[in-house]
């Protein structure tokens, strides 16, 4: 069951990054993990390409932060 823990963690990380002046960051997710890829897309992470790592395809996502916290 989903309880919003992942979303809360991402939101907390975003607040910490904004406080440190970080404007954007990337995450990498194994392409075959459909639920995980959908999670990041739901949270408005932007597709930023694919890479091959450990013999598999991974999706790269970018999150752009704003000082106003309007994401």
Give a quick set of tags describing it.
single chain; 71 residues; alpha+beta; three-stranded antiparallel β-sheet; 2 helices; globular
Describe this structure in words.
This protein has 71 residues and is α+β, with helices and mostly antiparallel strands. The protein is built from 2 helices and 3 strands. A 3-stranded antiparallel beta sheet has the order 1-3-2, covered by helices on one side. Strand 2 (46-53) and strand 3 form a beta hairpin. The longest helix is centred in the first third of the chain and has 15 residues, at 5-19. The protein is globular, with a radius of gyration of 13 Å. The protein starts with a helix and ends in a 7-residue tail after the last strand. The mean pLDDT is 92.
Beta-strand portion reads 25-35%
Task: Count helical runs.
Answer: 2
Runs in which pLDDT lies below 50 for 5 or more consecutive residues are none
- Shape estimate: globular
Order of helices and strands: HEHEE
- Ends distance: 25 Å
Task: Please render the helix and strand layout as text.
Elements: H1 5-19, E1 24-30, H2 34-42, E2 46-53, E3 56-64
Antiparallel strand pairs: 1-3, 2-3
Task: Summarize the structure in short.
The chain is an alpha+beta fold and 71 residues long.
């Amino acid at each position: 069951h989903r309880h919003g823990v992942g979303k809360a963690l991402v939101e907390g990380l975003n607040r910490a990054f904004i406080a440190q002046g970080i404007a954007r960051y990337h995450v990498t997710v194994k392409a075959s993990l459909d639920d995980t890829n959908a999670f990041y897309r739901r949270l408005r992470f932007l597709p930023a390409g694919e890479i091959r790592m450990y013999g598999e395809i991974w999706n790269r996502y970018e999150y752009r932060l704003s000082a106003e916290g309007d994401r």
